Each structure stands twice: as C-alpha cells, then as structure tokens.
Amino acid sequence: MHEQELIPRRVRCPYCDAPFDLLLDPSQGSQLTWEDCHVCCAPIQVRIEADPADPEALAVSLGRDDEVL
C-alpha cells in the first residue's frame, strides 16, 4: 500500500473532542482497530465499514474503549 492510496478522514476524539486525521486503507475492507488520541492519549475504538460495491466508500465510527461499536 502506497501512502498516496490512503484516504484521509477528519474525525474527533470521543473523549476530548480534539480533531485529527485518520488515514484509511480501502484495500483492507471492514475492520475494527484502535487508535490513541494524539492530545489526551485515550484509546479510541475505530470501526471502519467498507461497501463491497464501492471500496472507496468507507463509513467510520469512533467510540470510547468501554463502548460497543
């Protein structure tokens, strides 16, 4: 995967509301992963849902570590 193939998505931390950019890889399909906030260091659940008909269309949900996404 080349960096130019990643899709940037602007999101906000569910803890401190700080904005940050996620780089999404559409070739990976749907996934659940974790990202630490760059401001408050809290663990953020990141759920990425890919549309099989359009791999570039990615839905992103963020949650706190104790939420079920």
Note down, in words, how this protein is organized:
With 69 residues, the protein is mostly beta strands. It has one domain. The protein is built from no helices and five strands. The chain has strands spanning 7-12, 19-24, 31-36, 43-51, 54-64. The strands form two sheets. It has a three-stranded antiparallel β-sheet with strand order 3-4-5, with no helix packed on it. A two-stranded antiparallel sheet has the order 1-2. A hairpin with a 6-residue loop joins strand 1 (7-12) and strand 2. The protein is globular, with a radius of gyration of 12 Å.
Number of domains: 1
Radius of gyration: 12 Å
The tally of strands reads 5
Strand content: over 45%
Roughly what percent helix? Answer: under 10%
Q: Looking across the biggest beta sheet, what order are the strands in?
A: 3-4-5
Query: Helix-strand pattern, N to C?
Result: EEEEE
Q: Oligomeric state of the chains?
A: single chain
Backbone shape: globular
Question: Average pLDDT across residues?
Answer: 89
**The biggest beta sheet, please?**
3 strands, antiparallel
Give the count of helical stretches: 0
Quote the distance from N terminus to C terminus: 27 Å
InterPro entries: UCP037225, zinc_ribbon_bacterial
Organism: Halomonas shengliensis
Protein name: Cysteine-rich CPXCG
